[in-house]
Amino acid sequence: MSKLIVSVSPHIKDSTRTSSIMRDVLIALSPALIASFLIFGWRSLLVTAVCVLFSVGSEWVFEKITNRPNTISDLSAAVTGVLLAFNLPVGIPLWQAAIGSIVAVVMVKQLFGGIGQNFANPAITARIVMLLAFTQTMTKWVIPDAVSGATTLVILKGESTEALPSLLHMFLGIRGGCLGETCGLALLLGGAYLLIRKVISWRTPVAFIGTVFILTLLLGKQPLYQMMSGGLLLGAIFMATDYSTTPNTNRGRVIFGIGCGLITVLIRVWGNYPEGVSFSILLMNILTPYIQKHTLPKPLGGVSA
Amino acid sequence: MVAKTLHGVHVPHRKNTEENSPIRMPIPSKICLPLSMHIGKPATPVVKVGDEVKVGQLIAEANGVMSAPIYSGISGKVTKIEDVLLFSGQKVGAVFIESDGKQTVSESIEPPTITNYAEFVEAVRRSGVVGLGGAGFPTAMKLNVKDLSSVEAVIVNGAECEPYITSDTRTMLDHPDLVAEGVALLQKYLGAKRVIIAIEDNKPQCIRNFRETFKGDSGVEVTALPAMYPQGGEKVLIYHTTGRIVPEGKLPLDAGAIVINCSTLATIANYVKTGIPYYEKCVTVDGSAVKNPCNVIVPIGTPLKDVFEFCGGFRAEPRKVLYGGPMMGVSVPDLDQPILKNTNALLAFAEGDAEPPTETSCIHCGRCIAHCPMKLAPVEIERAYRMNKTEELETLKVNLCMECGCCAYVCPANRHLVQVNKLSKARLRIWQEAEKLAKEAKK
Fold first, then answer.
1. What is the rounded CA–CA span in Å between residue A108 and residue A281?
2. Predicted model pTM
3. Closest to A8 (Cβ–Cβ): which among B235, B409, B418?
4. Residue B391 to residue B167: CA distance in whole angstroms
5. Which ranges of chain A have pLDDT less than 70?
6. Residues of chain B contacting A244 with CB distance shorter than 8 Å
7. Are residues B391 and B335 in the same domain?
8. Quick one: DSSP state of residue A73?
9. Do residues B371 and B308 both lie within one domain?
C-alpha cells in the first residue's frame, strides 16, 4: 500500500475557484458585449478580441520570460482584456488597443507580482494611460444614428449644444460613449448575475451609484442622466468591485463606493475632464489598504491589547 | 433571543450512517493505549509487562488534576510498555495489551457512591472520560467549578455539525435515557438551573425526542439550531444559545457557561449507574474508500486497520485517513494507529478526495473574512505572517482562531489558511514569551 497523505484540515473544499469566479465575470460581461455589437457593429467585437488576445498573450509571454507559473487559465487576463475594450471608443486604432492591453497586464498587474498583488485596477489604469497618450483617438466618439460626436456628459457639462438623448435611449445604450459602457440594461443584467452568484457585494455599486445620484440631485445636475452616462454603471458594477484593488470588508466597500461617487461628481461637475469614473476608482484604489485596515471587523471576544 | 448569528459555511452533511445503530465489533487481538489521549499530563501506568488484565481494569492513573485515567477494554496480558509516535508527532508512552479472547470482566467495577458535588466530580474523574467533541479536555476538570453560582447555563452539545459523523446522533437516538440521566446529574450536583440541549435542525428526530422527554421540566430547553458549520464550536454554541461571548484567553465559564458533549454526558451517566468506566466508544466509519460505512462500538486502543476490516475493508485504496470529520479532523500517517478516547469518526478517502488542492495566488476576494465565525481576517493574518509582522498577529487576534476551517473551505485560491493560523499562533507564543522575558530583564 502506498503511503497515506497527511495534510492540514479542512479536507474538503467548496467548488469556487479563481477561474470559476472569473468565468462568472465573463458571463456577466457578455450581455454588454452583445449590446455593444448591436449598437456599434462588428468593430466592437474586433476591438474586444484584440484586447483579450493581447492581454492573455502578454501575460503568457511575461510569465514565460520571468519563469513564473502560467496563470492564463485563471481567466483573469481575459477579464482585464474585455474590461479594457469596454472602456475604449469603438473607433480606436487596433494597435493602440493592443498597447493598452500590454500596459494593463504587464505594467499594472504582472510587474506588481501578478494576480491579487496589483494595487491599481489594470483596465482602468491602462485606459487612463491611453487617454493621456492617445488623447485624440480616445475621445473621438461614434454616436449611433447621429450626426456628430459629443457624449452625454459633454452635453450635460454645457460644452456642446446638442440635444440630450432620451432616457430610454440612454438606458438601452444608444448614445455616444465607450463601446461597453453605454447599455445600462445589459450592465445591470450582468450585475444581477454577479450578485446572484455571490461574486460581488451589492455594497460598492449601490454606494457608488447612490452617491452620484444624491450629489447630482442636490446640485441640480440631471441625476438620472448622470447615473446612466459615462462609465458609471460599468465602473461601479465591474471595476469598483475588483477584488485585489478594493477593500474586502463590508464597511470598507461602502466607504470605497461613497469615495468613488464623490470624486466622480467632483470631476464631472467642476473638473476639466467630462468623465471622472476611471480617475475616481484609481484614486480610491490607492486608499484601499488604509480603508481595509480601519474597517476590519472586531473579532468576537477580542480584548484590545 | 439572540439578535445576530455568527457566520459560518454550509457544508455537505453526508450523514450516511445516521440510520445505522452502532454494531459492536469483535474483540481485537491486541490494543494499544497511549498514555496521553487528553489535553494535559500523560497518565501514569499501574500495570507491568506480563500482568494479566481484565475488562474495565485500571491501566494508568491520572497524573494530577489535568489528566485522566485509562482503562482496558479487553482482557488479556500486557505485552509491552513503550513509546509510540502519535498522529500529532508527539512521542508518548503506550501500554500494549494482547487479548485472551475471554473478556473477563474486572471485579473492580461497581457503581460509585455519590452524595455530594465533590464526589460527583471525583466520579467523573475516575470514569476516565474526556471531552468527546474533539479536543479531549479532561471532563472532570471542566466540571470542577470553584463557585457553582457562576454557572448560569450548562449546554449539552448535540450539534454534531461536522459532515459524515453520526456517533453523537446515535447516542441521542439509542441512549436518550442516559443523556436524560446525565442532565439530572448536572441538575442535582452542579445545581444547574438552566440546561440547554442544543441540536442542529438536521436531526429532527433527536429534537422531538428530547422535547418530549423534558416536556414538564422548565429547567431544560431543547434548542434547534440551524444546520450551519461550525454550530458545535464551543464559542459559537454559547453565543447562539445564550448570547454570551467568551472573552479572549478565557474559558466558557467566564461567560457563565459549561459546554458538555452529549456522548460525554451519556458516558458519565453510564459510569454513575453501572460503574463501567470509559473503555469503549462509538465511532462513525465512513468516507469514499470505505466499503460499508457504519457506526461501530470499539474498545479504545483498537488499531484502525481492524476497524476498517470490520467495516468490509476498502472499496478503493485509501489515500487519506482521518480521525474526526473532514473540516477539523487530523490525518493519520498509518493504519496501525489506535482509536483514541476522543475519536468520534474514522474516515478514509480514496484517490480524488484525498489530495489537498494546489494553492494559487490570493485574489483578496474577502470570502475568508465574510465566513469567519470569530470575525477574524485570515487574509490579513496570512499577510502579517508572511511579512513576519508578529506584533500585528496579536492585534489581528489570531489566538481567537478555533481552526474550524471555514476560511480555507471557501477560499477560491485554496490557500492553506488554517495551517498559517496554526503557525501564526505558535510564532506569536514564542514572540510573547520573548517579550515577557525582555520586560522582566529590564526591571
1. 14
2. 0.92
3. B418
4. 42
5. 1-2, 144-150, 161, 304-305
6. 363-364
7. no
8. G
9. no
